Amino acid sequence: MKDKVTVFWFRRDLRLSDNKGLSAALQSGFPVLPIFIFDPNILEKLTDKYDRRVDYIHQALQALQKDLVAKGGDIRVFHADPLEVFKQLHKDYEIASVYGNRDYEPEAIKRDEAVERWLNSKDIPLVTAKDQVIFERNDILKADGTPYSVYTPYSRKWKEKLEDKHHRAAIMKTDHLLPLDKKQLPSLASIGFEKTDMRYEKPQLDAGIIDDYGEQRDFPAKDHTTRLGIALRFGTISVRACVQFALKHNATWLGELIWREFFMQILAHFPQVVKQSFKPQYDHIAWRNDEDDFQRWCAGETGYPLVDAGMRQLNETGFMHNRVRMVVASFLTKHLLIDWRWGEAYFAEKLLDYELSSNNGNWQWAAGCGCDAAPYFRIFNPSEQTKKFDKDLAYIKVWNPDFESLTKEPVVKHEFARERALKIYKKALDKNREG
């Protein structure tokens, strides 16, 4: 006799607390078998095998396993194509249903649709829950039923619609886990990756940072940001817990959480933004796409101390302060006239907190081509940004300590680059209007 079980498929929700899909699975009437799948279709695209994100997931799974074992269960972790995993599980168990939390990225949607078709062919329902957002694709719409493409009215409607029930924690009946013998997780090496300097700790909400987040967040030397991007990305913290905390402590940080959902619904409604500008006329820009300039930007060797400090911080740690992200993105797209998609891809490769929707939305914002973008004529002057946000050069001295001894000419002079960008952008937009 095969055990009749409910399978819960962990993905971007690596926690036992306040997990909507897991909560529903635990109330399904059958013992819950938790699983996680290292998908080769995703991992094979990561060319650098020293990837802190994979190590983060691996360590988060170890913490999750410890919590599950303490409650009498365990997790089964696979390194295989998801469809093949479910075919094997179907042989080993009588599966009553499969539960998971919804994922909104285009490739994840395709994956889930393929799995659901196969499960349906075996009369096994796939039940998904809303977990990583407060409001989904069609929860916040204009009066005429169309999606918002400007943040401010979206944010206003989001806050108007928010009720206590939207950020109430899920009930977790963990006594309904399938009793399992503890099984060692696959090693990082067995899935093709190296151990990194990443050290996973369960994320915490820190009132000391969030209470004055609005006043301090723009100063990179203060490092006064939550660093919770990676935790939200992989679901080691609940977005509901974050929203509850923001409502009590800081409206500015709440706004950042709403930006995250704004970009997610943009990606859901307009999936073409993955490859195209939200405003199609910006795809007429005659980008220079100079390979040497791009390599200098990547390496932090542009001759602009703040830009170079940011890129070196990214390359060394996988993190860059948000104010500096805006400066380096503006510099690449406006000063160097390099296609925003080049910068977006580089950030996708390097950022620990990489999130497709936010990365895409913020790069299009910087390039002026996004749904709610900085106008094309807004071009950050790196020197002025330094005076405003790092006047004592404290951040620059940490990440670009040799900046004063460098005699190399900047890759481009600011005034020249600004005038060139204005001309090229205007020409593209005028051409679009004429055409």
Write a brief caption for the model.
The protein is of the alpha/beta class.
What does this molecule look like?
This protein is of the alpha/beta class and 435 residues long. It has 3 domains: 1-130, Rossmann fold, CATH 3.40.50; 133-168 and 206-269, Serine Threonine Protein Phosphatase 5, Tetratricopeptide repeat (Alpha Horseshoe); 273-434, DNA Cyclobutane Dipyrimidine Photolyase, subunit A, domain 3 (Orthogonal Bundle), CATH 1.10.579.10. Helices cover 47% and strands 7% of the residues. The chain has helices spanning 20-26, 40-43, 52-70, 82-92, 106-121, 151-161, 207-210, 213-216, 229-234, 239-249, 251-269, 291-299, 305-317, 322-335, 340-350, 356-367, 382-389, 394-399, 414-434; strands at residues 4-10, 32-38, 76-79, 94-101, 126-129. It has a 5-stranded parallel β-sheet with strand order 3-2-1-4-5, sandwiched between helices. Helix 11 (251-269) crosses helix 16 (356-367) and helix 15 runs antiparallel to helix 16. The protein is globular, with a radius of gyration of 23 Å.
How would you summarize the topology of this molecule?
Elements lengths: L3 E7 L9 H7 L5 E7 L1 H4 L8 H19 L5 E4 L2 H11 L1 E8 L4 H16 L4 E4 L21 H11 L45 H4 L2 H4 L12 H6 L4 H11 L1 H19 L21 H9 L5 H13 L4 H14 L4 H11 L5 H12 L14 H8 L4 H6 L14 H21 L1
Parallel strand pairs: 1-2, 1-4, 2-3, 4-5
